[in-house]
Amino acid sequence: MNMGRILIIDDDPDIRTLVNLILKKQGFEVETASRQEEVFPMIASFDPEIILLDVLLSGADGRLICRQIKTTKELAHIPVLMCSGHPGAMRKGDYGADDFINKPFTAEFLLSKIENYLPGKAG
After folding, report:
1. Which of 86, 89, 87, 97 is nearest to 51 (CA)?
2. Quick check: 62 and 36 in contact, CB under 8 A?
3. Tell me: the pLDDT tens digits for 26-83?
4. Mind giving me the DSSP string for 29-96?
5. Is 120 left (phi over 0), alpha (psi -120 to 50) or beta?
6. pLDDT over 90, % of the chain
7. What distance in Å separates the CA atoms of residue 65 and residue 11, rounded to the nearest whole number?
8. CA distance linking residue 97 with residue 48, whole number of Å
9. Are 79 and 117 a contacting pair, CB within 8 Å?
10. Helix, strand or coil for residue 111?
């Protein structure tokens, strides 16, 4: 049973692998990206229902990617959950993220956050 499509954008291969396993075990369809250049082509081809986006990507600022997603009319409806292990990473400026997840996090916490943003389950 397909629970939904989630795009993971993180430059840490261990995080991508772990979150991918957690989500697939729950029935989600998952794709991953590790670089800024992959983000928008992946969104276009995969059409995710939720995006998990790391704040600090190698050579890129995930907050700016989030702002770009949220200011693009065709993409603004996609919930973006920002993730970071750096305290205060989301305090400077409003980037349009729908939620924030501190690293490290438990599988249960991640799944509860995602559940809040699944189409038809929000409210």
Report:
1. 97
2. no
3. 999 999 999 999 999 999 999 999 999 999 998 899 999 999 999 999 999 999 999 9
4. EEEEE-SHHHHHHHHHHH--SEEEEESEETTEEHHHHHHHHHTSTTTTTS-EEEEESSTTTTSSS---
5. left
6. 81
7. 14
8. 15
9. yes
10. helix
Give every CB contact of residue 90 below 8 A, 6+ residues apart in sequence.
55, 63, 82, 84, 97, 100
Cβ–Cβ < 8 Å for 70, 99: no
Residues in the chain: 123
Asked whether 63 and 90 are in contact (CB, 8 A), the reply is: yes
Q: Which amino acid is at 38?
A: E
Q: Tokens 């629970």 appear where?
A: 3
CA distance 105 to 118: 19
Paired with 81 in beta bridges are 52, 99
* Paired strand residues for 82: 53, 100
Give the tokens for residue 25.
Answer: 């075990």
